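pinned: reference chain
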Amino acid sequence: MQSISISIGLWFKLMKGLRRRGAGFTESGGFLLCNPGKSKVVKIVFYDQFDKTVSESGIIQFKGAASFFEYLAEEKLEVLADIHTHPTRNTQQSDSDKKHPMIRTRGHIAIIAPNFAKNFLLSPKQCSVYEYLGHFDWRKFEISKFPIHLKLI
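pinned: its structure tokens
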């Protein structure tokens, strides 16, 4: 797994967007996008941009896949990872997280941010990162092998 780089500015824009969308009481999420074959995040899109009802039940239920994949093709971008929030400090995958990967491709990265991303200075290392292995199996990254790096770019 190659590391993911994201500018500090884009990371804080991502956290602000998650915080605003969840409003402190519901999960929110988004996709980290890159140019084909690259590992630098160049754009973020939030789930609710493609599915306005994504968080109505309190958890993520994304039904906007068709329009999202059309958007990726038009913009010539790929999904590098997805991120969503959890309500507490616990960033372990729920059964729902494990059974419903946002992208069902081996090697896809899923990130979970704690406390609805309410901490204004939340760093990537306060999140949990998982790699999808296929067949609903996942591998959690240890902090020492953490694949996300903030860059001053």
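why pinned: The radius of gyration is 14 Å. The chain has a mean pLDDT of 89.
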